[in-house]
Amino acid sequence: MLRPVNSARTGRPIVGVGLVLGAATLFALNGTVSKVVLTTGLDSLRLVEIRCLAAAVVFVAVALVRNPRSLAVRRRELGFIAGYGIIGVAMVQWLYFAAISRMPVSISLLIEFTAPLLVALWLRFVRREQVRARIWWALALVISGLALVARVWAGLTLDTLGLVFSVLAAGSLAAYYLMGERGLGTRDPVSLAAWSFTAAAAFWAVLLPWWQYPFARLGVQVTVGGGGMLPARQVPAWVLVTWVVLLGTVAPFGLVLAGLTRVGATRAGLIGTTEPPLAGVVAWLVLGETLTIAQVLGALVVLAGIVLAETSRAPSLVGVPPGGP
């Protein structure tokens, strides 16, 4: 189980910073890799379906090696695990994939990362918890920054459906954080990840039966690079899907888990705000996605608002579960 934030190990915090920064980098890379996979004709639903199943297998295997008894589930947990897996895992990933298929990776991720602000507002107005006054500055910064990113003076310049997906992804990510804190009150992070990904995999299997899966798409040759600074290369789609599962899901989740015990949830969340700009750089190098000067300025303003939102809540006694789209 995650240790309380206030008691995170402090002997070598630089190691924790490196671990969380490594996770943010892998999550950032995953956005571009996933977008390339989606050009093969494998739609966002099928990509998230195989990602959830493969990640569930790995996390269950890790839990069995570490502590098999941690996977024991009480009947009263079943509803929570199902809800957390569907809302906090399945929906977050699918909405993000759907958003980046229609909008630049950096903008989609930036909007989704406003989740800490939504969490703080939920706590203030629904749970009636004490929230620091800086939340109002955070709200103002995020709204003004997003206005710059969307270039509102030029009309709606962003894809409407992509914008809707991004906003819904932010809401789902906020639910992931809130529900995750509850889950970590009774369960260790590895078993929570194992069961939540298993629930998500079961959800997609019911909606999209595996015997109808377009496995032929995994053998398609896809072009990586060529649109930005990197030269074009042909890679089988299954190689990129394997990346999405192992280096875009399992590895960064594990790095966040290891980092949280050293730097605490709040600092980990702040370090995690490096993910949108990193994702923007990767998308520029590989896909040639660029932003205007106004949009870059807006992104910086939004990130400042997210940082304020991350620190506006009183320290929690438990960390947040590892996360990333």
Structure summary:
By secondary structure, the chain is mainly α.
Termini distance? 23 Å
Structural class: mainly alpha
- Could you name the ranges where pLDDT drops below 50 across 5 or more consecutive residues? 1-11
Number of helices: 11
* Percentage of residues in DSSP E strands: under 5%
Tell me the number of strands: 2
Give helix and strand order, one letter per element, not per position.
HHHHHHHHEEHHH
Strand order of the largest sheet: 1-2
> What is the CA-based Rg, rounded?
19 Å
Overall outline: globular
Largest sheet: 2 strands, antiparallel
Return the domain count.
1
Give the % helix: 55-70%
Mean pLDDT: 87
| Multimerization state | single chain
For this entry, give a set of tags.
mainly alpha, two-stranded antiparallel sheet, disordered N terminus, globular, 325 residues
Secondary structure: elements and pairs:
Blueprint: H1 13-37, H2 44-66, H3 78-100, H4 105-112, H5 115-125, H6 134-150, H7 160-183, H8 189-207, E1 221-224, E2 233-236, H9 237-272, H10 275-287, H11 293-310
Antiparallel strand pairs: 1-2
Helix pairs in contact: 1-9, 1-10, 2-3, 2-8, 2-9, 3-7, 3-8, 4-7, 4-10, 5-7, 5-11, 6-11
Model description:
With 325 residues, this protein is mainly α. The protein has one domain. The protein is 67% helix and 2% strand. The protein has eleven helices and two strands; from the N terminus they run H-H-H-H-H-H-H-H-E-E-H-H-H. A two-stranded antiparallel ribbon has the order 1-2. A hairpin with an 8-residue loop joins strand 1 and strand 2. Helix 2 (44-66) packs across helix 9, helix 4 (105-112) packs across helix 7 and helix 5 packs across helix 11. The chain is globular and about 55 Å long. The protein starts with 12 loop residues before the first helix and ends in a 15-residue tail after the last helix.
